[in-house]
Write a structure and sequence with these properties.
about 200 residues; alpha+beta; Serine Protease, Human Cytomegalovirus Protease, Chain A; nine-stranded mixed beta sheet; 13 strands; about 20% helix; globular
Length: about 200
């Protein structure tokens, strides 16, 4: 039997309001990147492809890989791009776990703490390149929120809250704002491409 494994990265959160002051609970970020991680492994582009197809891109979002609790949300989009596995998820704000997770994310961003995403998976196929295990086929099982990101190059870009039609952003420099605008345009393009298929 193959072992269940975990990998952790930091990510971006987005929040918005709809129907008054109820936040939507959208979470967006990279669940995995193609860079070598703290465990000495590297995921190959395309490694998630068959798993995403099999599951139609829908996976549970857990808190810290805790399978004894109900999920705190579900992925709504998973796409492999030039950087890694780009994820968008909807937290279940009608549950205690989903609300707690969303509140934690907002607080972490307010105090400038970079929360993380972690994947739970079974490695179907891998090969060695020097001292690096290259994961070539991954059976993704879940994505979790975690406080301890392993990939130090992955950064939170923006946390945004929209109240009464006004957006409040924590982006401080013009360079940060430009990077966030590019990312947002890329996400919109990816979503448009997915919906026209």
């Amino acid at each position: 039997m193959k072992d269940f494994e975990y990998r952790t990265l930091s990510f971006e959160i987005r929040s918005a309001t709809q129907d008054g002051d109820q936040p939507q609970g959208k979470v967006m970020g990279y669940a995995s990147t193609w860079a070598k991680d703290a465990f000495g492994d590297r995921v190959n582009p395309g490694a998630f492809g068959s798993s995403i197809t099999e599951q139609r891109g829908k996976y549970p979002v857990l808190q810290g890989h805790d399978t004894s609790l109900f999920p705190i949300g579900f992925t709504t989009s998973l796409v492999e791009d030039h950087k890694g596995l780009l994820m968008e998820a909807q937290l279940a704000l009608n549950t205690t776990g989903g609300r707690d997770a969303f509140g934690l994310l907002q607080t972490a961003k307010a105090v400038d703490y970079r929360m993380g995403l972690s994947i739970g998976f079974i490695c179907r196929e891998w090969e060695m390149e020097d001292e690096v295990r290259v994961l070539t086929n991954i059976d993704l099982k879940e994505i979790s929120l975690t406080a301890f990101p392993a990939n130090h190059r992955s950064r939170v870009l923006d946390a945004r809250s929209i109240h009464g039609g006004e957006a409040a952003s924590v982006l401080k420099t013009p360079a940060d704002q430009l990077r966030a605008a590019i990312w947002q345009a890329r996400i919109r393009l990816i979503h448009e491409m997915e919906t026209t298929r």
